[in-house]
Design goal:
Number of helices: 17
CATH superfamily: Penicillin V Acylase, Chain A
Distance between the termini: 50 Å
Strand order of the largest sheet: 3-4-5-6-7-8-9-11
CATH architecture: 4-Layer Sandwich
Radius of gyration: 22 Å
CATH class: Alpha Beta
Number of strands: 14
Helix content: 25-40%
Largest sheet: 8 strands, antiparallel
CATH topology: Penicillin V Acylase, Chain A
Number of domains: 1
Shape: globular
Strand content: 15-25%
Length: about 500
């Protein structure tokens, strides 16, 4: 990797971030964090993710039944980004959660069979894997067979027992490493995996020729470079050094590690924090902007500001479409021990709403089509004006956009409301865990109805607060946001 820019130069470049938003999407989309069960406050495996995408895009939530694909498949939640190849996230009935981050590689001679594989890779993992490791093994077989038809990507895969980082290169090369139970891994939009021990079969799954191929292409020379470093060998230098990526990584490292990193430091692929982290810690991280003194000066000068297009270290950004923290607990039945806390637009302005593995239906009004058409027409997105007027995304987006018009004035008030509603959801869930566990042993079907109702109620309360705000701020606009029956009312077995 090239020597990182001097901090003064880097900060100067940061002023160009607004213009950089028009650059290639693969440079800086999405952000993820994974934490092992020994470093979290409740012993859960945590996976936090912000889905960042440019353009006028939206997302749907579907609950895909196991029978949809035939025998030996899993039921799963599908957070679909219509029209997008690499933006969907998943949580299946075994508590396997999958998200991803674009990571450009230096590969320019990919080996592909019949055009390779793209979107179907994550869908296959979600529909077939019983564990995070099995998901990695499924992906490895598909990449070996077909090759990956994109510059590069890192998949974050977790279950109630462990988390894995799978970095895929354009073509037929990849490496996956298990996150140690006492560690945290942070992924902006570049490869973060460094050392690779191909003999460590318990914790590493990789292309057999990962190192030899890098030597063949001139990307790695043991005599000159020393130990093999995947990030340096396979990563795209521009991607690795882009200030948007560097600054987000720097921001997260300093917030989570308990240490102080300099911008020009060589960042580690994992950290061992001094303190355990919680679900709330990661929710806060997903909504952070780190605007600092520069934003305060801007506020004083202009009277109003919003942070989403103003700095390169903003984790919650102008193009963040949703965020979630997956809380995966092994000590409870997976139906409710595994929950995805979802912020249905920018996390700084949204309540985190629970989605449980064992739910019988997806939240109402979060589907633009029925499931069959969503699958068939995935790569054909609807124009925002063509979405059903009842689609909750329109309300969540309008709410965040409205707040942004007067952010400095409105955010202090709504932050308290958001935090209060999120904490009510978290505490309500925590209070019910023991009762739910006892009830589950006797009547699991009845319990699944209870957790479905819990989630739907939390979703309705959040949506109601958003629509109430809109009705007060822009009454004429709020009239279009009407309730209607869900497109997915039937129970999914």
């Amino acid at each position: 990797m090239k020597m990182r820019m001097k901090i003064s130069h880097l900060l100067m470049v940061c002023f160009l971030v607004v213009a950089a938003n028009a650059m290639a999407q693969d440079g800086f989309e999405c952000f993820s964090v994974m934490a092992g069960q020994n470093i979290t406050t409740d012993g859960s495996v945590l996976l936090a993710h912000n889905e960042d995408d440019y353009g006028d895009v939206y997302f749907d939530i579907y609950l895909v039944p196991a029978k949809y694909y035939g025998k030996n498949h899993c039921k799963y939640f599908w957070l679909e980004m219509p029209g997008m190849h690499f933006s969907d996230s998943y949580m299946n009935e075994y508590g396997v959660v999958i998200a991803s981050d674009a990571c450009a590689s230096r590969e320019d001679k990919p080996s592909l069979t019949n055009g390779g594989i793209t979107w179907e890779l994550r869908n296959t993992m979600a529909s077939q894997a019983h564990t995070a490791r099995e998901a990695v093994e499924i992906a490895a077989r598909l990449i070996d067979e077909k090759g990956y038809n994109s510059s590069g990507r890192t998949y974050c895969i977790a279950d109630p027992n462990e988390a894995w980082m799978l970095s895929v290169v354009y073509g037929k090369h990849y490496v996956a490493k298990r996150i140690p139970n006492d560690a945290i891994a942070i992924i902006p939009n570049y490869y973060t995996i460094t050392d690779v021990d191909l003999n460590d079969v318990e914790n590493v799954i990789a292309s057999p020729d990962l190192i030899s191929y890098a030597e063949e292409r001139g990307w790695y020379d043991q005599a000159q470079d020393g130990d093999f470093n995947f990030r340096k060998s396979y990563g795209n230098d521009d991607n690795l050094n882009h200030p948007v990526n560097v600054m987000r990584m720097w921001c997260a490292l300093n917030k989570l590690s308990g240490q102080t990193y300099a911008v020009e430091d060589e960042f580690p692929w994992i950290i061992h924090p001094k303190k355990r982290i919680s679900v709330e810690n990661l929710m806060d991280l997903l909504g952070t902007h780190q605007q600092g003194e520069a934003m305060k000066e801007k506020e004083e000068a202009e009277g109003s500001w919003h942070p989403h297009y103003e700095g390169s270290n903003s984790i919650c950004a102008g193009h963040t479409r949703y965020g979630f923290v997956a809380q995966l607990q092994s000590g409870y039945p997976v139906d409710f021990g595994c929950v995805m806390w979802l912020a249905p637009y920018r996390p700084c302005t949204q309540t985190f709403i629970p989605l449980f593995c064992g739910m019988l239906s997806a939240p109402e009004n979060m589907q633009s089509r029925d499931l069959k058409d969503a699958r068939r027409l995935h790569f054909e997105s609807l124009a925002m004006n063509d979405l059903p007027s009842s689609h909750a995304y329109l309300s969540f987006k309008a709410y965040s956009d409205m707040v942004e018009t007067n952010y400095s004035t409105l955010i202090p008030q709504i932050s308290k409301e958001i935090e209060a509603q999120t904490m009510e959801n978290l505490r309500g869930y925590q209070a019910k865990l023991l009762d739910w566990t006892a009830a589950y042993k006797e009547k699991p079907k009845e319990l699944r109805k209870q957790i479905t109702e819990f989630s739907h109620t939390a979703f309705s309360l959040s949506l109601g607060r958003v629509r109430s705000f809109l009705s007060k701020q822009a009454p004429q606009q709020s009239e279009s946001f009407i309730q209607s029956p869900s497109l997915q009312e039937t129970e999914v077995k």
